[in-house]
């Protein structure tokens, strides 16, 4: 297992900055804030934090809406594991049968080596998911999870010698696998989003908490834990609350810095809303904060920098935490507040 992960994307800046590039000629891809999501029909609250990625397939959408990472590289004979959370809107439907890809492993030049596809049948509105050894999947299993966050995991072994493997897990359970696959070359990039959808397919897809590693990642054990382990900058909670304890854990160097800001907007960080700052000592030993607990009014955003930093944050209480309903209530109050906050 890498330390902490080979690649992690939580969209907590509300942008595509964690990815190498974006393709979205019809402007269907965005990274909405939780206060925006409560006004979108069929939308969820982010699985964690304040933002997630959204693809809005309105009528007429045919262009790709994707983000690409060149950090997703798999050498010949190597195995990598992927995990992300996906929400399919309850109104996701089609008036013509459609098969489209939501995740692709490609050569550097764009040739597809493995794909994760979805299929929707117009007559029954049946939604299915499956992986393909190449352009699109040819075998599918039912995906009965509209209106729910689902943990999607993919095991990918790349092999030009006929030993390739692809295994799909949903919510921690293996649902599909294939062995003895042959790829043409190593993987040099990964692509997340929607590709090759028909204009008659409509609805929304949401993505959150994307991770790639060299060992299986597994689903997040608890969505709203009291003690949160962070390996990347993120919102621990939104709204008023208290931080019972925070520690900057030992990293691989002594250059790690942890800063906590009283905000629910990841880009709104300045000295005026900073409430805690910790720096690793020489040798990279763990550092606990003094002056705890700390109360915040807008939210708890933890910013991490340095060489492989990690943080452990203990939530005391939080207005927008413990359930999606509480976050929605906070979002409604946030919107209604004079001048916002």
Summarize the entry for a quick read:
By secondary structure, this protein is mainly β. Helix content is 5%, strand content 47%. The chain has helices spanning 34-37, 324-336; strands at residues 7-9, 21-24, 29-30, 53-57, 65-69, 79-88, 93-94, 98-106, 112-121, 126-132, 141-142, 149-157, 164-170, 173-181, 189-195, 201-213, 227-230, 234-249, 257-262, 274-279, 287-288, 294-296, 299-305, 310-320.
Structural class: mainly beta
- The number of helices is 2
Largest sheet at a glance? 9 strands, antiparallel
**pLDDT < 50 stretches:** none
User: How many strand units?
Assistant: 24
Backbone CA Rg: 21 Å
Oligomer: single chain
Mean pLDDT: 93
Question: What is the general shape?
Answer: globular
H/E element sequence: EEEHEEEEEEEEEEEEEEEEEEEEEH
Task: State the end-to-end distance.
Answer: 40 Å
Strand percent estimate: over 45%
Helix content estimate: under 10%
Descriptive account of the structure:
The protein is mainly beta and 341 residues long. Helix content is 5%, strand content 47%. Strands 1, 3, 4, 6, 7, 12, 13, 14 and 16 form a nine-stranded antiparallel sheet that branches. A hairpin with a 5-residue loop joins strand 8 (98-106) and strand 9.
């Amino acid at each position: 297992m890498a330390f902490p992960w080979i690649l992690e994307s939580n969209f907590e800046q509300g942008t595509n900055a964690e990815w190498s590039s974006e393709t979205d000629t019809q402007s269907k891809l965005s990274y909405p804030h939780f206060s925006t999501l409560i006004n979108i029909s069929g939308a969820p609250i982010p699985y964690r934090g304040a933002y997630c990625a959204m693809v809005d397939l309105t009528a007429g959408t045919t262009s790709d809406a994707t983000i690409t990472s060149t950090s997703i590289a798999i050498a010949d004979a190597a195995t990598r594991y992927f995990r992300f959370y996906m929400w399919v809107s309850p109104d996701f439907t089609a008036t013509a049968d459609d098969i489209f890809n939501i995740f692709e492993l490609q050569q550097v030049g764009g040739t597809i080596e493995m794909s994760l596809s979805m299929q929707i049948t117009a007559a029954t509105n049946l939604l299915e998911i499956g992986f393909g050894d190449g352009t699109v999947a040819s075998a599918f299993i039912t995906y009965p999870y509209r209106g729910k966050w689902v943990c999607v995991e993919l095991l990918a072994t790349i092999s030009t010698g006929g030993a390739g493997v692809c295994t799909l897990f949903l919510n921690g359970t293996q649902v599909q696998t294939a062995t003895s696959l042959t790829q043409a070359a190593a993987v040099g990039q990964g692509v997340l989003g929607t590709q090759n959808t028909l204009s008659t397919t409509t609805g929304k897809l949401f993505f959150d908490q994307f991770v790639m590693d060299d060992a299986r990642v597994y689903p997040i054990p608890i969505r709203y834990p009291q003690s949160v382990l962070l390996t990347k900058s993120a919102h621990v909670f939104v709204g008023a609350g208290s931080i019972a304890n925070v520690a900057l854990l030992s990293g691989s160097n002594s250059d790690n810095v942890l800063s906590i800001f009283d905000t629910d907007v990841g880009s709104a960080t300045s000295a005026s809303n900073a409430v805690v700052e910790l720096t690793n000592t020489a040798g990279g030993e763990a550092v606990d904060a003094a002056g705890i607990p700390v109360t915040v009014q807008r939210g708890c955003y933890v910013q991490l920098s340095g060489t492989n930093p990690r943080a452990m944050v203990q939530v005391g209480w939080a207005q927008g935490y413990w359930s999606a309903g509480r976050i929605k209530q906070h979002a409604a109050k946030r919107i209604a507040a004079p001048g916002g906050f």
